[in-house]
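OP here, attaching both records as promised.
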Amino acid sequence: MKENNPNKDRLKYLLFVPTMVILVSMTIVPFVFSLLTSLTNYKATEPDNWRFIGLDNFTRALMDKDIQSSFVNTLVYVAGAVSLEFVLGILIALLLNRKMRGITVIRMLLLLPMMATPVAVGLMWRWLLNTDFGIINYYLSAWFEITGPNWLGEYALAMPVVILVDVWQWTPFVVLSLLAGLQSLSDDPIEAASMDGASSWQMFWNITLPQLKSIILVVLLIRIIDAFKSFDVVWTLTNGGPGVSTELLSLRVYRVAFKFWETGYASAISWLFLIIVMLITSQFIRFLYKETPK
């Protein structure tokens, strides 16, 4: 019989200590601190002048019209970006799933937008969309004799442009995820349906799409979470403007925390934001487990 070595068992647990210390210090401690801060009127500029105010920050956040406006903007941004990314992603994935020359090169090129840092993407598109010397307005004028609009300065255009920039950067992620799912599917059901005279649309809708349902839900879940916490691209593109037309909730939290220095209030907004995202994602996870074959 194999005997247990007490010293070896003790060593195994000791090896976990550095990881647990880092985990606690980098995640749990900030969470607890932000929760406690949200219950006070703490300001970073007045660290010694604070008091416990209970849920007043949360009540204030729920009644704040600026927060409501930012939340609506966030919902529009997330819904628009993720919907377009999914539609384009599945269409491009179906196209790239076919055998054709140069398909490997095309797949590699798809990675480029996703590999760029969000700040670089925002700055690049800000220059491209510049009203006076942006290349997009230049070619609109040179080729079509059209005076290009102020893409990032007009209230009606700013949010669609921000959404399209996010779509440009993150559609490749959706494409690659769905393409991997398509290539993992068995060809037997498709071949059987083809022999029975099913059309391409019928095979996609009744065979391919149901088999991809779990992968689709995971991809949508990841993109929704990521889109909800978007900050870099929007900040570098529009800084939340014009006015507050593209001010997402993440930008609003930043302004409250680092412009008005209301740290306690910013923490309360962040916790409300976290709760909302958790409620939305929990529904996706519940649906995912419901649809996953046992």
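Record two, same layout:
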Amino acid sequence: MSYDIFAHYYDEIMDQSVYDSWLLYVEKYTAGKSGLNIMELACGTGKIAVELAKKGHQVTGVDLSDEMLSLAYNRMQEEGVTLSLAVGDMRSLEPMGDFDVVTCFSDSLCYMSEEAEVAEVFQSVIRNLGPGGIFLFDVHSMHQVNNVFPGYQYIYQDEEGAFLWESFAGDATNSVEHDLTFFVGSQKNPELFERYSEYHRERTYPLEVYKRLLEAAGFVDVTATAEFGESEVRDDSPRWFFACKKA
């Protein structure tokens, strides 16, 4: 499936204000500082990376997908900023510099299917942080994965087609599976629609597991919050936000 199609619907269904909330969360830990060297893991179409660059930071966007990076490049050109873009697997990043901040948002870490893979990500991140560097990320809570997502259905349509999203409990503990179906107008015959499907698997872990893996990787001052850092974690918090520092 064309990532242009995915990006179109992703931007349509995503609450755009959430990007402002992610940026405000970053600003909590970078207030008063300019020209920081920031890496955004799983940067996708580059929306957050571009906004950080607009604030005067030097931003490197890393993603596993060439296609997503192509869209990030187009966004960079349209917005008139400069990003460094690199293909990379966040589980096995080579040292790319001593970054001041590394971010990984939009529950991208939940695509790690095993606890060992989460540990690999944390080790990759700390290799790329300078002394005292900050790592900021979010993940789905266990409440969101186990109680909210299973049975979830969403339908969106516009002039260009339709998007269906269904979620089911996964086979692994604390996991969920998302079945995404796109119906897009055919370029060859405007009276027909082409069907595309994607399957996404996500998994989360108890708070204590994330904290243990972060500390084992060498992070200190590990803080977990909810609501983009605005509240303490509750039993029904949908998403957890982590901030930690390289010693």
